[in-house]
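Reference record
================
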Amino acid sequence: MEDYLINGSLWQTLGVGIGIIALVLAYLNRKAIYRFYHEVKTELKKCTWPWDPDQSGLKKYKTLIDSSVIVIVSTILLAGYTSGFDFLLNNLVALLISF
């Protein structure tokens, strides 16, 4: 079996095999890939930047900064809630097991 391995490595052989299969499937499915590419391109043309191009300085990035702050704060709150709930359940189970 070692005669069939690329550089004697099973992982390299699997990687090349998966790559070849992906290329064959992409070739057979090229119309779907082409359609997907153009749909993505069309949708990205509808996107807008989160700032006004006429402004300068930090005012230009106000919406971006505000959104980033909201995401960071909500992530911290969710992490705190999850950690607190985990702590309570952990202590409750430990208390129940100790009896």
Notes: The CA atoms of residues 38 and 44 lie 10 Å apart. The radius of gyration is 26 Å. DSSP finds three helices and no strands in the chain.
